[in-house]
């Protein structure tokens, strides 16, 4: 197999590798997050505050379908990283072909049902009152592009598994820039409102898909598949599914969380509270980009070295990733505690939203310095192919702690009970993850010490 950049993952300095992998991943996530952030700012200022809430209703549905591609990508990429580390090129190629087939089959089916039940899905996710109509307009158009987004998410993780983080970064940058340009043309210049915002988003998915397709058919990729690789192989599909289910379950819980949050906040404070949550949600995507970047960069390094039985390098990767991620998370925490009102004013000039959002933002990010432990810990088990602990640790924050809390605490503290659920869930899930990660570091990964 030509162009074996993946071999560097098992030989070069862990610090250098993590920077090489994480910086492009962070930049890509930053640009993508900025795209979502600026897109929301454009929508809020050019269409209105209700439009922000409408997009927030649609996102969990479209992202869940797209997350099928991400889950197949991450599950398959774990196999690819370990296969490349073990010099099993045939398995790597077959896995990639199966990833493409699975992504197309599942996402097209989900889009069909998503459009068929549109009038039931939107209200269920909080698209009520004045939010319903703009959400329906946005939903219908964006869903047409979601299979392309799923293929992009799948392909992006495979590019990282090959040890090509810069190309993965470009795959995230081009559509983000394209979306902002299309936003200006469709919303501001052509005055198409919500339709314009939706077509700009769908167009950005197509831009990303074209770039990733070019990468894999060009000489840049070492995974050169043919028609024989697309036929589904049951053992590989099963392994992709068991590992990818971790990511899918996480996104499913995120989507369910949006469903509950939008409905609970609508009942407590109407459109204003849903809009505040939408703004805070955008900051959750944007502000944590360096931590997510380190997590993405960590995955192929840990997976490759685990597959090569280099457990000392796996331990070093974990410790280095934690050190970098905790430091960056602390900086994010300080910035958000100081400037929440200024950040809110970027999105809207609505007085009620500006009043409600800053205190909510401070509570939501109150435990940010320790969140890196939970993210890196869960990612480790996924990288090394341990699906069950990866799944359980991924679900601890939102599934086991956060969702129960948002049903219990509002009975005692009203809307404040919703916001304080965030740091409580962060602390509890970090304690659980730290315990399992420590056990793994001092037991399994000591075998070659």
Q: Would you summarize the structure shown here?
A:
The protein is mostly helical. The protein has helices at residues 14-46, 49-85, 89-116, 118-124, 132-161, 165-189, 193-217, 234-287, 289-307, 311-338, 340-347, 351-364, 371-383, 387-408, 410-413, 415-442.
Measured by DSSP, the beta-strand proportion falls in: under 5%
Distance between the termini: 32 Å
Largest sheet: none
Low-confidence stretches: none
Please indicate the count of domains: 1
| Total number of beta strands | 0
**Overall shape:** globular
Our count of helices gives: 16
Instruction: State mean pLDDT (0 to 100 scale).
Output: 84
Structural class: mainly alpha
Order of helices and strands: HHHHHHHHHHHHHHHH
Q: Supply Rg.
A: 21 Å
Please bin the fraction of helical residues. Answer: over 70%
Task: List its traits.
449 residues; mainly alpha; globular
Describe the structure.
- Helices cover 84% and strands 0% of the residues.
- It has one domain (11-446).
- Helix 1 (14-46) packs antiparallel against helix 9 (289-307) and helix 5 (132-161) runs antiparallel to helix 6.
- The chain is an all-alpha fold.
